[in-house]
Amino acid sequence: MPQSSDTIYALSSGSLPAGVSVIRISGPNAIEALRGLIGDHVPAPRHSSLKTIRDRNSDVIDQALVLLFPAPNSFTGEDCVELQVHGSRAVVSAIFNLLDQRQGVRPAEAGEFSRRAFDNGKMDLVEVEGLADLLQSETEMQRRLAVEQSSGHLSGLYDGWASQLTRCRALIEAELDFADEDDVPDSVAAQVWAKVGELEKDLSSHLAHGSGSEIIRDGFKVALVGAPNVGKSSLMNALSGRDVAIVTDVAGTTRDVLSVDLDLNGYLVTLFDTAGLRDATDVVEREGIRRAQMTAQSADLVLHLRDIDSSPQQLDIQNNFEAISLVTKADLLPQSANIEDGILISAKTGYGLELLKAAICDRIKQRVGAATTLMPARSRHKKRLEETLEYVREALKSEGMELAIRSEYLRLAATSLGRITGRVDVEDLLGVIFSEFCIGK
């Protein structure tokens, strides 16, 4: 998305029709564009004012609450105007037609407002990504993680580490430049490398929480596996509260992998229903079983189902995490029966489902850990942090080598951190990142 001196506009609220819609205008001609809509009596900065929007024939289009944010104190860092209008398609279309008639005013591209905020130093790259995640968040934990990014807390952590590296390099350079003088005490080198050692521990701990952020952002993947007709599809329907999967008494009804997203205590959980595992001769069913095995192997958690009439079976699937055993069809179980080797559930009556949900949430918390904020939220962050950590470790391992070489490792580490926040050569990333945004943001 190239930088532009144009003034841009877009609908920044939800789809039409709506009770109220927000139109945003940003750029050097934003205030003049506003005058073209409401006349010369523009409101005072950051004070809402009720104004009448008229066309070129002075016919009334709508009444709007108008807010003016002069540069640089606006979201984009430019002159910015927001109009709160009635959210009909006719009203919004009429206002857009008036804006289109003005020289140097055009519709915004996806993410262009946020791109201008980045270009004008109002946000760094981590904050931009956090804003994108906040707009797309569906669960409470996703919202919390996104707020930590978009509010600048994560950027503050990375900037603090970069500052520490810069200070350490400055002290090393001082030792190099004034090695023959008494201005630099002998203890400086020891202090520098002690500080670098502390930073190495902080980076390692921070990266250890990376998998937790991926689970929060992308979801915790749970696979339902077991023999045909043990109740996998019924359980998926019961947990989701709707008929996602077809349920019949015919073994092998489920041939492909079905999925549904759940919100469990603020965590996004993606549930996968798979084909029943058995020795099959049908080509289509064999393919479904192969996909079921692949899904289970890549899942974060496997729920191994068997019904009350079946004996426990060894789950022959390679997975990094222990499975939870479920005994289904509890509604058919005699009251005197005793089940000790799994969670007893009934998709029909709902018996045991709350216990199952709690067990899934416990597994999520084990993976995420106690900290659910200030974690590397994207694979891009993790990659750069791993580079940073590697350079820091090389600097620590290079004891006995020239100080200039060790200082260079610290410079490379600081550069990797700078690429996370966008302080260093990230132009090739910007188009990809801002394409995630909707029009009007």
Automatic annotation (TrEMBL):
Highest taxon above the source species: Bacteria
CDD domains membership: trmE, TrmE_N
Residue ranges annotated for the TrmE-type G domain, each copy included: 219-365
Binding site for GTP: 229-234, 248-254, 273-276
EC number, as in UniProt: 3.6.-.-
Binding-site positions, K(+): 229, 248, 250, 253
Necessary cofactors: K(+)
Ligand binding (Mg(2+)): 233, 254
Major localization class: cytoplasm
PROSITE patterns to which the protein is assigned, alphabetical: G_TRME
Alphabetic keyword roster: Cytoplasm, GTP-binding, Hydrolase, Magnesium, Metal-binding, Nucleotide-binding, Potassium, tRNA processing
Positions contributing to (6S)-5-formyl-5,6,7,8-tetrahydrofolate binding: 24, 82, 122, 441
Cofactor note: Binds 1 potassium ion per subunit.
Record's subcellular location: Cytoplasm
Quaternary organization: Homodimer. Heterotetramer of two MnmE and two MnmG subunits.
Membership in a protein family: Belongs to the TRAFAC class TrmE-Era-EngA-EngB-Septin-like GTPase superfamily. TrmE GTPase family.
Function: Exhibits a very high intrinsic GTPase hydrolysis rate. Involved in the addition of a carboxymethylaminomethyl (cmnm) group at the wobble position (U34) of certain tRNAs, forming tRNA-cmnm(5)s(2)U34.
Protein name: tRNA modification GTPase MnmE
Provenance organism: Agrobacterium cavarae
Organism taxonomic ancestry: Bacteria, Pseudomonadati, Pseudomonadota, Alphaproteobacteria, Hyphomicrobiales
